[in-house]
């Protein structure tokens, strides 16, 4: 990236030879008596003028288009820098540094035909850069998603029992010695607990979720003589008059531990059926309530981590292989995106410079009139000489503006000649 500032300046030839205007511009700011920068000729092609109204409308839009294309150039540049990190190198335009391209600018007649109407030409340039912007968004989003997947895989591979793939931690002996149920009515869940929470967890596990399950059916244990006798059933029984936890008493088992956390297995009621009922002559089907999800929510509120686990001996080591594959994919995507940035930075930069040249043409025609008769140059401003060069140009080609009578138009400087400043 070039850190020099550039001025594009255009003045009327006033019927004289372009060489005279060129010498005036050189004497104003790029000579021994005014060493404010280095000056280069700027080729401005003969473009189609159109009507005065169309030029005025285009002039209003060109500033916005210029800023929009610059922002896309910066995006590509920033993406390239972030991808390369400390290995970042200067991006080029057509194989040369951007500063050299600017100083040796030549209109690309094949890509941007100068005899097309100006509005069409600006649209052609803008649409090309917009396509670059859209493609960059898609590529960076895909790369970002792949990076997230890689970080997640690393976290699972190198984490503790709260994050690691349990198939990589638990072996066949541990699984065989753990009572694991997964039936229509019971489900064993695995819970990872920080070691600092172990005592609290083992103390309160059977008391957790005490409002989740309704146990209020007929109680023949207190009245065995009623066993087998007719009784209320279905929706005639308030099952929720007695509530309790879904945890099966005595089912808590220690599974394994690491330096940071402990893994437990606990068996719970898997679901609860709410009886159907009649509404008039129509029967409303009963529903099944998922107790596993409800109890998992209770555990999460206490910062206990419910781990998804399905024992699969063949998957042992697959996480490491998946991690390695993700590493390869991320590296390949980074390399591809870096190459893409190098190529499309140049394309966007070329478009940006062509828009600036069109701006110079339009502003010069509006300011100096027809026939088209002006000379444009490019100044590479010497470090710290921006103000001196601006004042020197004002002194030579216009009326210097004092602090009190400075003419500001829409927040921009006004000069009696065409002046466009930019930092590549």
Give descriptors for this structure.
424 residues, 4-stranded antiparallel β-sheet, 19% strand, elongated
Would you spell out the secondary-structure blueprint of this structure?
Layout: E1 6-12, H1 18-29, E2 30-31, E3 34-35, E4 37-41, H2 52-84, E5 92-93, E6 96-97, H3 98-103, H4 118-158, H5 172-176, E7 186-194, H6 198-204, E8 213-214, E9 243-244, E10 253-257, E11 261-269, E12 271-274, E13 277-279, E14 282-284, E15 287-290, H7 291-301, E16 305-307, H8 318-368, E17 374-381, H9 386-397, E18 408-409, E19 412-413, E20 418-422
Antiparallel strand pairs: 1-17, 1-20, 2-3, 4-17, 5-6, 7-11, 7-16, 8-9, 10-11, 12-15, 13-14, 18-19
Helix pairs in contact: 1-9, 2-4, 2-8, 4-8
């Amino acid at each position: 990236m070039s850190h020099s500032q550039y001025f594009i300046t255009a003045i009327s030839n006033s019927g004289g030879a372009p060489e005279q205007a060129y010498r005036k511009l050189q004497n104003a700011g790029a000579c021994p008596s005014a060493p404010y920068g280095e000056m280069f000729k700027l080729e401005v092609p003969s473009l189609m003028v159109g009507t005065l109204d169309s030029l005025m409308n285009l002039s209003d839009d060109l500033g916005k288009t210029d800023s929009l294309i610059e922002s896309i150039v910066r995006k590509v540049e920033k993406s390239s820098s972030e991808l390369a990190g400390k290995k970042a190198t200067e991006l080029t335009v057509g194989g040369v540094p951007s500063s050299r391209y600017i100083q040796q600018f030549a209109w690309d007649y094949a890509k941007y035909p100068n005899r097309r109407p100006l509005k069409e030409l600006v649209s052609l340039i803008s649409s090309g850069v917009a396509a670059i912007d859209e493609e960059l968004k898609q590529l960076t989003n895909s790369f970002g998603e792949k990076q997230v997947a890689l970080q997640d895989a690393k976290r699972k591979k190198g984490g503790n029992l709260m994050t690691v793939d349990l198939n990589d931690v638990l072996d066949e002996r541990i699984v065989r010695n753990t009572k694991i149920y997964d039936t229509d009515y019971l489900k064993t869940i695995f819970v990872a607990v920080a070691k600092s929470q172990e005592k609290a967890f083992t103390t309160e596990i059977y008391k957790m979720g005490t409002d989740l399950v309704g146990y209020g059916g007929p109680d023949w244990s207190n009245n065995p003589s009623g066993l087998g006798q007719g009784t209320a059933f279905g929706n005639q029984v308030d099952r929720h008059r007695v509530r309790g936890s879904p945890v099966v008493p005595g089912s808590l088992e220690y599974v394994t531990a690491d330096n940071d956390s402990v893994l437990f297995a606990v068996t719970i009621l898997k679901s609860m059926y709410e009886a159907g009922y009649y509404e008039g002559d129509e029967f409303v089907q009963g529903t099944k309530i998922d107790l596993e999800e409800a109890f998992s929510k209770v555990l999460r509120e206490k910062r206990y981590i419910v781990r998804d686990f399905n024992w699969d001996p063949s998957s042992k080591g697959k996480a490491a292989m998946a991690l390695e594959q993700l590493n390869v994919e991320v590296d390949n995507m980074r390399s591809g995106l870096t190459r893409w940035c190098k190529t499309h930075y140049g394309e966007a930069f070329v478009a940006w410079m062509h828009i600036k040249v069109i701006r110079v043409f339009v502003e010069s025609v509006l300011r100096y009139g027809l026939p088209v008769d002006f000379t444009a140059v490019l100044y590479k401003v010497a470090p710290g000489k921006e103000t001196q060069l601006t004042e020197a140009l004002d002194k030579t080609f216009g009326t210097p503006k004092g602090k009190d009578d400075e003419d500001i138009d829409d927040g921009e400087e006004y000069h009696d000649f065409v002046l466009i400043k930019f930092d590549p």
